[in-house]
Design brief:
Blueprint (H helix, E strand, L loop, with lengths): L1 E8 L3 H11 L8 E6 L5 H12 L4 E5 L2 E4 L2 E4 L3 E8 L5 E7 L4 H6 L1 H7 L3 E6 L6 H11 L4 E6 L9 E3 L2 E2 L3 E6 L22 E5 L2 E5 L2 E2 H9 L7 H7 L2 E4 L8 E9 L8 E4 L6
Parallel strand pairs: 2-3, 8-9
Antiparallel strand pairs: 1-6, 2-6, 3-10, 4-5, 7-12, 8-12, 10-11, 13-14, 14-15, 14-18, 16-17, 17-18
Helix pairs in contact: 1-2
Amino acid sequence: MKFQSAISTDNEWQTACDACLEQLADREGYNLGFISDRFQADFSAIVEVFKKHTGIDTWVGSVGLGIIGPSQEVYEQGAISVLLGQFPEDSFRLIPSIDCDPKAFVESEQDWITRHNAYLAVVHGDPMNPSTQETIQKLSDELATGFLVGGLSSAADESTAQFSGVEMADGLSGVLFSSEVEVGSGLTQGCSPISDYLTVTKCDKNMMFSLDNQPALDVYKEIVGAPYNEDLNLAVNSIFFGLPIKSHDSRDYLVRNIVGIALPIKCWPLVITCKKVNR
């Protein structure tokens, strides 16, 4: 297997495409492309450009507000990031758009999944689809290892386009790999922990009333400090909750946004959400 990647920034997607292609000097022998960009209205056109100039027909990806590439992260401007991969023949299958139940996809590929011991999927999900979290869990349950990595689409105008062979607007999509493809995985987020682990000692669904047996808001304000204590609107847009991942031996965590502070309630709970996690 071999890989090659590129990233470019420009407010014109055609110019960004040209800049990426200049970085991809070696285009021979690759059979799968990954792509992410901020040009959601032109996503399909961008993929067609890379198909034509790389010779790769199979692409997966999604739009994002933040784009990451070789040694660079890009926010608040046009950007395209691509990764070309050369994988063993017949070692992957595209996952088409799954709106709710992945059983039909798994059944259609069951023979390949069994013969190739398919064990890992890279997926992109629509944060606006209320079934996305349930679909991720169902797909994980349908696979022998249940090992999924990936992230949620994001766009300024909620046009959360994905690409898996064709462009799609919602659901879950991506690529499923066989055991021939050796993968080392890790969790990356644009956040750093600012406290030790805390225990949620009282909650109601996504409303937290107490942390370590103390009022949740008091604990939160003590941790974040000034100037956030004087401006909680600033705090909820800058400070997030990290939920530890079960069975991991490293300090990996899932980021969850704070969407509000419920008033008036005696304990003043913090309210977190699972919908907006693109950090």
